[in-house]
């Protein structure tokens, strides 16, 4: 039952509100003065306060100031028989949810209370979700490399400096980008992510800058681009090395001038966006190969952050592995499972080509497949079960030569995509095939990244 504190020096008002609220199923508490109200709030929790402005001793606005220092989120509805616009404005500036004039209208009182309590519930849920997300996205590690990165994030996060994050697939480049945004002055504004490797070149410019209706075949309506969505916030260009030279030129202009144009339009749109970029490619080599603009490289690389592969910071594995285990248990309602010291030592000897992403997947498998609450070295056989060779498996599952070819092609492409973190552009380039051809094969075989 939700509890409401009624603060008013008039007994008739207190009794009238009590009758209305208790009929609707609320529990009521009373205070005849501001001092008594504050004492009540110290003694027990309430869900909402109805506070009279004109009272002997402390008036309602003074009490409101004190309530805000005690609980910034507690909804307070101000009531007064001498209401003026100035008083209402001052009340809301001090943090009151709403202002009601006497004589109080029953329906208006109840609607205002319901809305205030609903808003408080939503605010609480938002904070809980935000805390959970930030915990899930926390950068963990005991290595000097990770500690240095965290220190750098805290130092440069509050600035508007552009940052280039480099590292292998699965090392946590996105986590670092989000941490930079959380530490920035833009933390309450959008964080917008674009995976440049996952979008075909012919669509990427539209994704970034938007387009007008009719700008190209299939452009049936105006579309807002990511630069506009990120207005006043942070735009994270993941795998920036996959941008075409044309898109690179437009991104450079957007960074230098703070201006963009939607495709099919000559209208200049001003944008205020902090750009954070990431790549697993050697951009300096790409500059020498004339596939990446040197001027853009210098624009995005004001502050470089390199994340070393997991095998170079094995001291991070114990804290990461246990954190992933805890998260899996919590998500699935399992009792807590721990990885014993010897298990962690064995995990530290692995190569981890997929870096932190691979470690997370392996730990999840261990937690789900292990029966006991302690994961021992004997359980590690669960993550690498013995099986027949790949060719033998394909032969067994194929009935015709065509089946054999298609199964082999599908598994080969899956392996190559996983090896490169599902970077389609990089995979196509390394396999020396057209990216559109690879997309068609992925569609044919239903190949898609598992989250």
How many strands appear in the DSSP assignment? 16
Strand content: 5-15%
Look at the helices and sheets and give the structural class.
alpha/beta
CATH superfamily caption of the largest domain: P-loop containing nucleotide triphosphate hydrolases
- The tally of helices reads 19
Mean pLDDT, rounded to whole units? 88
CATH topology annotation of the largest domain = Rossmann fold
Rough outline: globular
Low-confidence stretches: none
Task: Please identify, by name, the CATH architecture of the largest domain.
Answer: 3-Layer(aba) Sandwich
Instruction: Give the spatial strand order of the biggest sheet.
Output: 2-1-3-4-5
Q: How many angstroms does the end-to-end distance come to?
A: 41 Å
Determine the fraction of residues in helical runs and give it as a percent range.
40-55%
Characterize the main sheet. Answer: 5 strands, parallel
Question: What is the highest CATH level, the class of the largest domain?
Answer: Alpha Beta
What is the rounded Rg?
A: 30 Å
The tally of structural domains comes to 4
What tags apply to this protein structure?
single chain; 451 residues; alpha/beta; Rossmann fold; Helicase, Ruva Protein, domain 3; 4 domains; five-stranded parallel beta sheet; 19 helices; 16 strands; 49% helix; globular
Summarize the structure.
With 451 residues, the chain is α/β, with parallel strands linked by helices. It is built from 19 helices and 16 strands.
């Amino acid at each position: 039952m939700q509890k409401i504190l009624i603060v008013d020096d008039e007994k008739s008002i207190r009794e009238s509100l009590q009758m209305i609220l208790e009929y609707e199923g609320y529990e009521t508490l009373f205070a005849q003065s501001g001092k008594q109200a504050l004492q009540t709030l110290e003694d027990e929790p309430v869900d909402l306060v109805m506070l009279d402005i004109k009272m002997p001793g402390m008036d309602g606005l003074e009490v409101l100031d004190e309530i805000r220092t005690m609980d910034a989120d507690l909804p307070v509805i101000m009531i007064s028989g001498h209401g003026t616009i100035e008083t209402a404005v001052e009340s809301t500036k001090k943090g009151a949810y709403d202002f009601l004039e006497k004589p109080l209208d029953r329906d208006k009182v109840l609607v205002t209370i319901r809305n205030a309590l609903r808003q408080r519930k939503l605010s609480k849920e938002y904070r809980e979700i935000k805390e959970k997300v930030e915990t899930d996205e926390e950068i963990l590690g005991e290595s000097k490399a990770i500690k240095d990165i965290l220190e750098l994030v805290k130092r440069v996060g509050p600035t508007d400096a552009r940052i280039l994050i480099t590292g292998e697939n699965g090392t946590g480049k996105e986590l670092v980008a989000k941490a930079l945004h959380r530490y920035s002055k833009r933390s309450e504004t959008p964080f917008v992510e674009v995976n440049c490797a996952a979008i075909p070149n012919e669509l990427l410019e539209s994704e970034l800058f938007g387009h007008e209706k009719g700008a190209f075949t299939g452009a049936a309506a105006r579309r807002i681009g990511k630069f506009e969505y990120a207005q006043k916030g942070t735009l994270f260009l993941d795998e920036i090395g996959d941008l075409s030279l044309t898109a690179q030129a437009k991104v450079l202009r957007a960074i230098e001038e703070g201006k963009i144009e939607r495709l099919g339009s000559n209208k200049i749109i001003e944008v205020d966006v902090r750009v954070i970029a990431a790549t697993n490619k050697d951009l300096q080599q790409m500059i020498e190969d004339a596939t990446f603009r040197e001027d853009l490289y210098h624009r995005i690389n004001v502050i470089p952050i390199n994340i070393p592969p997991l095998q170079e910071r094995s001291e991070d594995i114990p804290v990461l592995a246990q954190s992933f285990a805890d998260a899996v248990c919590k998500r699935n309602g399992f009792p807590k499972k721990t990885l014993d010291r010897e298990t962690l030592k064995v995990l530290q000897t692995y190569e981890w080509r997929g870096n932190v992403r691979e470690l997370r997947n392996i730990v999840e498998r261990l937690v789900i497949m292990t029966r006991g609450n302690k994961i021992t070295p004997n359980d590690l056989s669960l993550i690498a079960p013995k099986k027949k060779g790949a060719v033998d498996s394909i032969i067994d599952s194929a009935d015709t030569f065509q089946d054999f070819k298609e199964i082999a092609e599908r598994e080969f492409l899956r392996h190559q995509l996983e090896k490169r973190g599902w970077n389609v552009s990089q995979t196509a380039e390394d396999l020396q095939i057209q990216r559109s051809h690879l997309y068609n094969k992925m569609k044919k075989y239903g190949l898609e990244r598992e989250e």
